[in-house]
Write a structure and sequence with these properties.
The protein is an alpha/beta fold. It contains 6 helices and 6 strands, in the order αβαββαβαβαβα. Strands 3-2-1-4-5-6 form a 6-stranded parallel beta sheet, with helices on both faces.
Length: 208
């Protein structure tokens, strides 16, 4: 049933993008970038889950997600359900104020890398997405593994420096940012985000 719901969600997003063309209107190309939100769930994220600028990670991501949706960018929530024997369903829910809204995607995973054993790659490809703006928890674990998975799968991974956390008052996030920058990945501050530009970048310019 969950796979059917996910398939219908992806199909709905595709039909929404195609609707203007079907009606003979000028079509705006679908956004080729998506905002990826990893494991911001009650079981993992507590008061210690601060960003590098000492903001609760869920609050920072919520603001970014709102701006992304307004620009026509798909927001993809990846949630870890591999510990259902240890946590209640409520504990595995997203931390407020985050919520899956109409037009968002929800992908469940059992491993740290969000691409292993999930539909994430296929869902993104079906939507024509080639660039991922990455946020979430924990910086040095599931976020790092999913960044690696994105690169292996051929996606351009851009990390939002102040929108992920590994606890310890933001120190782990800072260390992970330094590592990513050291291996040549693009790490940008949320204040530098230009969602309209991300959504208007043609394939030839986004590295695909």
């Amino acid at each position: 049933m969950k796979r059917l719901v996910r398939t219908l969600t992806v199909l709905g997003l595709l039909l929404t993008a195609m609707a203007p063309s079907l009606l003979g209107e000028v079509q705006t190309p679908p956004c080729r970038a998506a905002l990826l939100v990893i494991d911001v769930q009650k079981a993992w994220v507590g008061s210690y889950a601060l960003t590098i600028d000492q903001v609760p990670v869920q609050d920072k991501i919520a603001g970014i997600a709102e701006s992304a949706r307004l620009a026509g960018m798909t927001v993809v929530f990846v949630v870890d359900v591999g510990h259902r024997d240890q946590f209640t369903d409520e504990e595995l829910e997203l931390v407020e104020p985050l919520a899956v809204l109409d037009g968002d995607l929800l992908v469940e995973k059992n491993y740290q890398n969000g691409f292993i054993g999930t539909s994430l790659k296929d869902d993104l490809r079906e939507l024509g997405i080639t660039t991922l703006l990455i946020t979430g928890y924990a910086s040095h674990e599931c976020v790092a593994k999913t960044v690696g998975g994105a690169r292996v799968m051929g996606f351009k991974a851009i990390i939002i420096a102040d929108a992920h956390s590994g606890g310890l008052g933001g120190s782990r996030a800072r260390q992970q940012n330094e590592y990513w920058e050291g291996i040549g990945l693009q790490v940008i501050q949320s204040t530098e985000l230009d969602f309209a530009a991300f959504c208007s970048t043609p394939a030839a310019e986004d590295g695909t």
